[in-house]
Amino acid sequence: MKKVTLAVVIAMGAMLASCNSSEQQTATTEPQQEATETEAAAGGQSAVQDDESQKNVVQVAASSPDHTTLVTAVKTAELVDVLTNAGPFTVFAPTNAAFEQLPAGTVEGLLKPEKRSDLRNILQYHVYVGILNADSFEDGQSLGQVNGGRVTMGVKDGKVTVNGANIVASIPTSNGVIHVIDKVLLPQ
């Protein structure tokens, strides 16, 4: 009987020691995990460094010398973190030349802090949630955009347009597709 009691006491002691050891490991790793999660949350998805994966829509646009105005607008509207998330997104991306077609002072006016909501509305009119490749569009197709507005696709003789703007290139990204367009889309 003494041998059984002694065996039970030893087994319980070993279990307690093992539990205590794992609690210390958990206590040591939890603050590290919390610190990492807090750092990532402070910067949002755009703060995540990844030089190996395919680039997302913001990274692709930022690397294009033809989209500096668009990237500035996305940053000013505070939409970078939204567009770096998983998506998927179809982005109709006007070139710098497209923005230059707007009346003088329009872009500068939209970049002012008091016009941020107008700028967001315009930029969100360029985004569809989901991936739509150029070959999937149909003439007359209507798409609901992020801002709640609708755009109309045109397909004629192999050329694709969105609200009359020509799609001049399409670029796949890690979280969707970018269709480069030659005009800025303005919500009605």
Automatic annotation (TrEMBL):
Signal is among the record's keywords: yes
Signal peptide positions on this chain: 1-23
GO cellular component terms given for this protein: extracellular space
PANTHER family (UniProt xref): FI19380P1, PERIOSTIN-RELATED
Superkingdom: Bacteria
Biased composition, class Low complexity, residue ranges: 23-45
Gene3D superfamilies (UniProt xref): FAS1 domain
Keywords from the named record: Signal
Name used for this protein in its record: Fasciclin domain-containing protein
Start and end residues of each stretch annotated as Disordered: 20-55
Pfam family, one: Fasciclin
Residues of the FAS1 domain: 54-185
